[in-house]
From TrEMBL:
Keyword Oxidoreductase set for record: no
Similarity comment text for this entry: Belongs to the bacterial solute-binding protein 5 family.
Transport among keywords: yes
MF terms in GO: peptide transmembrane transporter activity
GO biological process, one term: peptide transport
Range of residues in the leader sequence: 1-30
Domain Solute-binding protein family per the UniProt entry, residue ranges: 74-427
Keywords from the named record: Signal, Transport
Protein's name according to its UniProt entry: Peptide/nickel transport system substrate-binding protein
Lineage, opening ranks: Bacteria, Pseudomonadati, Pseudomonadota, Alphaproteobacteria, Rhodobacterales
InterPro entries: Peptide/Ni-bd, SBP_5, SBP_5_dom
Compartment(s) of residence: Periplasm
Entry GO CC: ATP-binding cassette (ABC) transporter complex; outer membrane-bounded periplasmic space
Length: 504
């Protein structure tokens, strides 16, 4: 394929070719190319519009972030080399002076300020707004210095900045988000090359990268919804890294003689969302009955091979604020039936359970069966990931009644998972509870770590008490990799291409 110049890629829409067969894209035998099978193609390559896994896997390599986490989970410099808290509400950052965007333009403090103002502008409509809306101002305050001001103390600021991708003002400010999505320009270790819609996204190595170079000349990300096909691709040598395997397929890789399994317990929490804005789920006892009806241990041990860990709170042990002693709903189908029988309004109507192929359908089907066993009428509604995301990011009155999902903020801070899922102001939330809102707002501003952790424990206990949302388990992610691929997966599920290598 002849490569267009970067200027042409920025100025013109990507040519789409829907008719290309998936099998027509094969990895280079010279190992200059890495081929990655995702579940879906990205929803967006504008890093301020989505951070679902399939999008994040790709764009995280096109863009640099304000700061990042190392393989041990510690926050370390990236675009910001150092930072100093001036007061409870002000932090000053020193910005690297040796970084250029992929079009050769230097990255400056002005780009950082523009980035912050872009993602925090309500009219821009970022689904990540709830992660950054405590930032009320960003300004250049010196040579290569940016000062961020927050609305009150904001202890989660650094954890959130881990996923703030810096975009070029001179390009992004002249485009709509949709246009920037078609030709994203960052400063990361890989440069956007092509998006063949329905087939693949291709990136190439940034030869001018300021940091650790990527080891692969070209990386192709393909959307392969069927997990068995992803494994077949790996074993046939048509893919070098495949994501989101279940335990049965992991065993197939291990016994197949080609490829290896890489796994890590993540910060991602699997949960069951109950839309209390809609009848009959506006009845707390029905929500509690659903909690008693779901056999979480059975799901983890029987379906997921014991890899995940059952959790009773909307946090994982990888998060700050994880608390011991919080107890959720034990599996008790008889108790569930008793509560259902005593309801003021019988739940006779069909309740839709929203899901997408990115989620383990064995778990979704098991939950459906468990709810059917206690007398509920539940229908699984499966859509592609883009549609699922659109349906989720709406008002409670328009959202699905039931949802199985898994959430990661890639920040390992409770604010990044609990605020969007529990605060009534979030378009992800199905919860309307003024006490929970007040506690979440207080936790966002509490700099004392012990007090802050206690606030999140209070919120989690209250959410369990009201069955506002049902935590299921800390997800383990299972990858299949070529034998020669060296890589250490991390809890925040980032595919850092420049942290991978081929074995000698």
């Amino acid at each position: 394929m002849k490569r267009k110049s970067l200027a042409a890629r920025v100025a013109l829409p990507v040519v789409l070719s829907l008719g290309v067969a998936l099998t027509a894209i094969a990895p280079a035998h010279a190992k200059e190319q890495l081929t990655v099978d995702l579940v879906n193609e990205p929803s967006s390559l504008d890093p301020h519009q989505q951070w679902n896994p399939d999008s994040y896997y790709v764009y995280r390599n096109i863009f640099d972030n304000m700061v990042t986490r190392d393989n041990d989970g510690q926050i370390v410099p990236q675009i910001a080399t150092e930072w100093e808290r001036l007061s409870d509400t002000e932090v000053v950052f020193t910005i690297r002076d040796d970084v250029t965007f992929h079009d050769g333009t230097p990255l400056t403090a002005e780009d950082v300020v523009y980035t912050v103002k872009r993602i925090t502008d309500p009219e821009f409509g970022s689904p990540q707004l709830g992660q950054f809306n405590k930032i009320v101002n960003a300004e250049v305050t010196g040579d290569n210095q940016v000062t961020l001001t927050t609305d009150g103390a904001y202890p989660a600021l650094m954890a959130q900045l881990v996923k703030l991708s810096i975009v070029p003002k001179h390009i992004a400010s002249t485009m709509t988000s949709a246009e920037f999505n078609e030709a994203p320009v960052g400063s990361g270790p890989y440069v956007f090359e092509n998006w063949d819609r329905g087939v693949s996204v291709t990136v190439i190595k940034n030869e001018e990268y300021w940091g650790d170079m990527g080891p692969f000349e070209t990386v192709v990300f393909r959307g392969v919804p069927d997990a068995a096909t992803r494994v077949a691709d790996l074993q046939a040598g048509a893919a070098d890294l495949v994501v989101t395997l279940n335990t049965d397929l992991a065993q197939q890789v291990e016994s197949g003689g080609k490829g290896k399994v890489l796994t890590v317990n993540t910060e991602r929490v699997a949960y069951f969302a109950l839309n209390s804005a809609l009848a009959p789920l506006d009845q707390p006892d029905l929500r509690k009955a659903i909690g008693y009806a779901i056999d979480r241990e059975g799901i983890v041990e029987g379906l997921l091979g014991g890899y995940p860990q059952v959790v009773d709170q909307m946090l994982s042990p990888a998060h700050f604020g994880w608390a011991e002693g919080i107890e959720g709903f034990e599996y008790d189908p008889d108790k569930a039936r008793e509560l259902i029988a005593g309801l003021e309004t019988a739940p006779e109507m069909e309740m839709g359970l929203a899901t997408s192929p990115v989620f383990d359908q064995r778990v979704v089907q098991a939950i459906q069966q468990m709810l059917t066993d206690v007398g509920l009428n539940v229908a699984i509604n499966t859509t592609d990931m883009a549609t699922w995301l659109k349906d989720q990011q709406t008002s409670p009155e328009q959202a699905p009644m039931l949802t199985f999902s898994r959430w990661s903020c890639a920040c390992q801070d409770p604010d990044g998972i609990m605020y969007p899922l529990l605060h009534s102001s979030s378009n992800w939330s199905r919860v309307t509870d003024t006490e929970i809102d007040a506690l979440l707002d207080e936790a966002r501003s509490e700099l004392d770590e012990e007090k802050r952790a206690d606030l999140y424990a209070q919120i989690n206990r209250k959410a369990v008490e009201n069955a506002d949302i049902l935590p299921l388990y800390q997800a383990a992610i299972i990858y299949g990799a070529a034998d020669s691929l060296e890589w250490q997966p991390t809890s925040n599920e980032s595919l850092f291409l420049n942290r991978m290598s081929w074995a000698e």
